[in-house]
């Protein structure tokens, strides 16, 4: 099991406001500090690559070849970054934190759907710890003030060494308004008037993720019940009118009322509650609600 200690990291502002033209002075990650044999992050092996197609693809390949859990690959630039539902995830070089973590959870596969929620929750906690008003959007996004700042893509990989999960995280750090793909997205720099140091932020993110992962693996059903409560409290989706596009081209409209002990979103409509295991959620404004 991966276990790595909590680190106190000071996040310093180093870049100009991202609202202006794209920053040209984006400092590289400190790969020496990150890769120093787990010195900063015991239990993890961090590799920084200048450019790759997708860190999820790269880590999945390593998982198939038998790599043990704890590998983290961070890319300064992805040329074919993958998002959920076959979407693309594009960020300019050094403007984001784009990385993937290889895990081999010992818990039953039925519990694995917790992984994206657990990881998104860890990103939200880390951002709140450095002063951002971050919330999670079920199941895979992290928002600041209703705008998406981070997305997660968790993929299962089968290998002779057993099943693995690749947890991919993309967090917009110094991305300017004009570099963002949609107006509903944001970056830390846009929210705070300057970008944090990405190395320190990555260390903090990985430490928080490691803590949550260890507690989940060790805690069984009680830990999942606690996680459901804590996730729901940090979830911007809960309490909202939502439209959920379900995998079988069906759509569900209703009010999100909570998250159950399996991580499913509970959606209430006409007195009936549906537990949603997978779907694309839209937070619906009142005027967009369908006529009953
Ligand atoms: O919001 C989404 O749809 C998920 C985006 C996930 C992007 C990250 S960036 C690091 C990792 N590598 C990928 O190709 N995708 C994930």
Automatic annotation (TrEMBL):
<dbReference type="GO" id="GO:0005737">
    <property type="term" value="C:cytoplasm"/>
</dbReference>
<dbReference type="GO" id="GO:0004077">
    <property type="term" value="F:biotin--[biotin carboxyl-carrier protein] ligase activity"/>
</dbReference>
<feature type="domain" description="BPL/LPL catalytic">
    <location>
        <begin position="43"/>
        <end position="217"/>
    </location>
</feature>
<keyword id="KW-0436">Ligase</keyword>
<protein>
    <recommendedName>
        <fullName>biotin--[biotin carboxyl-carrier protein] ligase</fullName>
        <ecNumber>6.3.4.15</ecNumber>
    </recommendedName>
</protein>
<dbReference type="Pfam" id="PF03099">
    <property type="entry name" value="BPL_LplA_LipB"/>
</dbReference>
<dbReference type="InterPro" id="IPR045864">
    <property type="entry name" value="aa-tRNA-synth_II/BPL/LPL"/>
</dbReference>
<dbReference type="Pfam" id="PF02237">
    <property type="entry name" value="BPL_C"/>
</dbReference>
<dbReference type="InterPro" id="IPR004408">
    <property type="entry name" value="Biotin_CoA_COase_ligase"/>
</dbReference>
<dbReference type="InterPro" id="IPR004143">
    <property type="entry name" value="BPL_LPL_catalytic"/>
</dbReference>
<dbReference type="InterPro" id="IPR003142">
    <property type="entry name" value="BPL_C"/>
</dbReference>
<keyword id="KW-0092">Biotin</keyword>
